[in-house]
Amino acid sequence: MTNSSSTKEFLRFFLVGLINTLVHFCVLYFAYELLSIELVTSTLIAFAIAVVVTYLLNYRFTFRSKKKHKSSLPKFIVTVLIGLGWNVGITVLVVQYLEGPLLLAVIAAAFVIMINNYLLSKFWVF
Questions:
Q1: What is the span of the domain harbouring residue 48?
Q2: Domain total for the chain?
Q3: The dihedral of CA 56, 77, 24, 104: what is its sign?
Q4: Same domain, 119 and 100
Q5: pLDDT (tens digit, 9 = 90+) per residue, 45-85?
Q6: Residues 30, 5 share a domain
Q7: Same structural domain for residues 54 and 85?
Q8: In Å, what is the CA distance from 120 to each residue of 32, 40, 46, 81, 96?
Q9: Three-class SS of 4-22
């Protein structure tokens, strides 16, 4: 893969991440604000839908994978769970141990998770 095609692939991955964020927010807003579903339940629903959308977009659009879903989907779920671990770990480290601002924790976690997810997706999942 050339440097130019790698850059385009990463930009597609980044775009899918933005779409993921938008889907998550819209579903969360709809479920919580409009349907009055409890907050944690609404968040879980939004997260699950965003994960499915992200998987499908990365499978088809970002990485143009030809692998079978029975191979790539479980790996993707593991990747998501690793990202969750990074998210919790970095947030706790920055906010509770380093007494840093929450926004810094969110930005740091997002950066680490983006790199982690891209590398795992590119070289392992898809």
A1: 1-64
A2: 2
A3: negative
A4: yes
A5: 999 999 999 999 999 999 999 999 999 999 999 999 999 99
A6: yes
A7: no
A8: 32, 28, 23, 12, 28
A9: HHHHHHHHHHHHHHHHHHH
